[in-house]
Amino acid sequence: MESSRIIKWLSTLLCALLFLKTQGQYVPLTRLESAVSKGAVCLDGSPPAYHFDQGHDEGANNWIVHIEGGGWCHNVTYCLYRRDSRLGSSHEMEEQTYFSGYLSDNQQYNPDFYNWNRVKVRYCDGSSFTGDVEEVDPTTKLYYRGARIFSAVMEELLAKGMDHAENAILSGCSAGGLTTILHCDGFRALFPNETRVKCVSDAGYFVNVNDISGDHYIEDYYSQVVATHGSEKSLPSSCTSMLSPGLCFFPQYMASSIQTPIFIVNAAYDSWQIKNILAPGDADPDGQWRSCKTNLNNCSPEQLNIMQDYRTQFLEALSPISNSPSNGMFIDSCYVHCQTEPQETWFKSDSPMVGNKTVAKAVGDWFYERSPSREIDCTYPCNPTCQNRVWESATASYPAMYTRVY
């Protein structure tokens, strides 16, 4: 009986692996050793890293550069914690990663971009690639060099053929999505005028709203991130000349300065932002929001009203993007965080849809200018195509502060 169960389990696992293989592929890790001499290193001083799958046929001269998510560290304590993990050291990164969704090489599951050169840049600096502090504390041995990493990796990719790109996209998820917004114009500047360059930010439009206790939790947090990493010089001067550098880490305050076309993929009820900006643990000491954040079906009418107000504030914060006709957006009413890499939310028969478009269709139509894509969903729980995230236990929605953002 036991052996038959094992055989059945192995058969199921094999089928699952074969199914995954049809949707994408595993891509090996490349550590950029030459960047070390430039001081472009992860928090622990190790070289930055990326995964690269070469394009072919009509996509041979087209490039997607996708930035991994992984949150931020806002002080020495939490940067030290990250230093010895994959979010702070390339020595701790897995030697290969799976490309699916937006990065898939399968035409069926990624019809517009499957044969492009596809790059996933690993995230190991904790500042959305904005930090640049020359001094290294001999005690902590922490390197705040995110901006240098971004430059070094881009130089490497240009040398690999990206300098001849006909089309190029900078994209990213979560903290990588914020990286995309902050570096969008800098990425555009790497290419000749004739190259079509655009940016796609997935779950990276973090908004500055008060939490449920009325405190400015995320505003204070971002101010500490910017101060710790010396990020001010990487932020647009058009913003920092008028506002504090910490505020210029928020897209809503600096996006109006972006000249490059940009597409925002975001849930209006982004699960990370609900859990960590609107209702962080510190603002909910009695845990009244714990069950709600685990499963929206558990939310009280009052909690849902608060989230509807959050959605309103989120849409208002998008105005710098919506004001430009060259930009696009896909804002669904799902409870989810990051939708371009998972195949289930990017493009499948049961993927979330807004205006009869999947995320993949909306992004492709916008990039190739086949039709405008400014899809804004109705309010929760109106959309039956949503794959709302449900955590298995209440504690899953309360990770420690240093792992909150991913």
Automatic annotation (TrEMBL):
<keyword id="KW-0961">Cell wall biogenesis/degradation</keyword>
<keyword id="KW-0378">Hydrolase</keyword>
<keyword id="KW-0134">Cell wall</keyword>
<keyword id="KW-0732">Signal</keyword>
<comment type="similarity">
    <text>Belongs to the pectinacetylesterase family.</text>
</comment>
<protein>
    <recommendedName>
        <fullName>Pectin acetylesterase</fullName>
        <ecNumber>3.1.1.-</ecNumber>
    </recommendedName>
</protein>
<dbReference type="InterPro" id="IPR029058">
    <property type="entry name" value="AB_hydrolase_fold"/>
</dbReference>
<dbReference type="InterPro" id="IPR004963">
    <property type="entry name" value="PAE/NOTUM"/>
</dbReference>
<feature type="signal peptide">
    <location>
        <begin position="1"/>
        <end position="24"/>
    </location>
</feature>
<dbReference type="GO" id="GO:0052793">
    <property type="term" value="F:pectin acetylesterase activity"/>
</dbReference>
<comment type="function">
    <text>Hydrolyzes acetyl esters in homogalacturonan regions of pectin. In type I primary cell wall, galacturonic acid residues of pectin can be acetylated at the O-2 and O-3 positions. Decreasing the degree of acetylation of pectin gels in vitro alters their physical properties.</text>
</comment>
<dbReference type="GO" id="GO:0009505">
    <property type="term" value="C:plant-type cell wall"/>
</dbReference>
<dbReference type="Pfam" id="PF03283">
    <property type="entry name" value="PAE"/>
</dbReference>
<keyword id="KW-0964">Secreted</keyword>
<dbReference type="GO" id="GO:0071555">
    <property type="term" value="P:cell wall organization"/>
</dbReference>
